[in-house]
Design brief:
Chain A: This is 2-iminoacetate synthase ThiH. The complex is a heterodimer of chains A (about 375) and B (about 260). Chain A is an alpha/beta fold and about 375 residues long. Chain A has a single domain (about 5-360), classed as TIM Barrel (Alpha-Beta Barrel). Chain A contains 15 helices and eleven strands. The mean pLDDT of chain A is about 90. Chain B is globular. In chain B, helix 1 links the parallel strand 3 (about 15-20) and strand 4. Chain B has eight helices and ten strands.
Chain lengths: ~375, ~260
Amino acid sequence: MSFYESLMTLERLPFKELWKGYRAEDVRRALAKEKLDEEDLLALLSPAAGPHLEEMAQKAQRITRSHFGHVVQLFTPMYVADYCVNHCTYCSFSSIYDFPRKKLTLEEVEKEAAAIASTGLRHILLLTGESRRDSPVGYVKDCVKVLRKYFSSISIEVNPLSAEEYQELADAGVDGLTLFQEVYHQEMYAKLHVKGPKRNFRARLDAPERGCQAGFRSVNIGALLGLHDWRQEAFMAAMHARYLQDRYPGCEISLSPPRFRPYLGSFNPESDVTDRALVQIILAYRLFLPRSGITLSTREPAEFRDHLVHLGVTKMSAGVSTEVGGHTGDGGTPQFEISDSRSVPEIRDMLYRNGLQPVFKDWDILAESSVR
Amino acid sequence: MKDALHIGGKALSSRLFIGTGKYSRNTLIPEVVAASGSEVITVALRRVDPSSREENVLNHIPPHMTLLPNTSGARTAEEAVRIARLARAAGMGNWVKIEVINDQRYLLPDNLETIRATEILAAEGFVVLPYMSPDLSAALRLRDAGAAAVMPLGAPIGSNRGLRTKELIGILIEETGLPIIVDAGIGRPSEAAEAMEMGAAAVLLNTAIATARDPLGMAEAFRGAVAAGRQAYLAGLGAVRQEAEASSPLTGFLNV
């Protein structure tokens, strides 16, 4: 059993008719329930929920405050290599682009780590491009060893790995895995992922589950919104999250709602994800998965992020650079343009102004080798 | 001290334990401590960052408080044991609230792993207060493993649903001989009073205070409710009757 089997069934749903079929009473019924099912999720993502965003927001906020309190956890991504063997039509790191690729030496990783840690952040997300040759597991492990000196929680966002490789990284002190399916619609996936191992839809889809099996404490998934009908994509991502949550209750499953951003190429998004649409998605995620983390990246503009912190978001990035080596000055090509370039103290102050407490540290690495 | 709660060699006059998570700012903590009159405060070690002056929650806790570091985030006995040791090594004293949770959906504790962690930590000299699902045999095993008190949940963490497990908690109070501290689920002062009236030794609260519109007002309300419930318990509540006393008794003929 894998989520793939569920997906095969779910994708046969007649989405176009479904979206038209929901009525206000379906939305109200979903809002009145405590444990939402698949039908409720569809109703909340449907056009019928559009006029009910305020009611959804009130409930989403109540649930978030009661489960997570008035806190938002902060982290930052750290790009260590941008070599990539895939050609994805929407990404700046795509192998077809000719730009000087970079991979940090371990000394450079240490310099970046020190620079980030000096801002007070204790949670780091280590990112590489997808290249087993240029950024193999051994390299990621070496980076983790360095990062452990500076951070109390390390997550990774790298190419899909085998269960054994995930296990190796979990043993080395990695506690979180982020891996976005990008697009759950299989035809669209094949169209957008032109070349490279990423073309294998199933291998990517099953990777988060392998991460759960390897014992990562948290697994964060998501659809890159805009690549295909956002309602359907958000539905699949949420169903994927619930699938994982039901089978691996010990693992914190969280969702990211990344929205397509301008990048080096000229790809035009398939489905326009307006601000209202993104809000609807975040609220539907929160109501459907009351205890899941929701992570908000700096893809979104500062002012919009400031509003979103009240709607169910539990984690956000701060002081972000999407360039390899971007924290020590001499960065390379950004993976995507960020919209919120605020520093860590600026984000901290914004949260306090909004009656929220920034949490810099929310874990201690307990991996075998770290406890003396 | 009159009617003190004795745990781990300390005599506590307040029977309201409070938390530190979920506040909109750490600077609220000393104010909540004052308003609640609490003497015991639980802190998740995972949130403690000794390297940060401003954001380190410990810097906001008044020195007279007894720290109750908790093992939030632990999924196994081994992880709970490591976290407890880290807390003690960080100078947070030898009290520990064991929290082993393997279920991120409901955040219900794993009693079996909790018992294992209690055995190990009690043997190492910790004052162990395990958070648990109210189950008599688990509570007795925790007692035998050396727990200083047991902390059954009233309802899932953060749910504010009240004393849903009342019957089971009542059994623990009667049968274990240990102080029973109701932890999690209490959303209203009346529910805290209810737990105390039943004979609970104390209650531990976080969400109800931290997420109230006025946390200080709510802390004060809980202080009064816990004290009133305790007083009622000590005063001896009258028995609750389902029926009015019949004016023509059925066995009156025996007295003729």
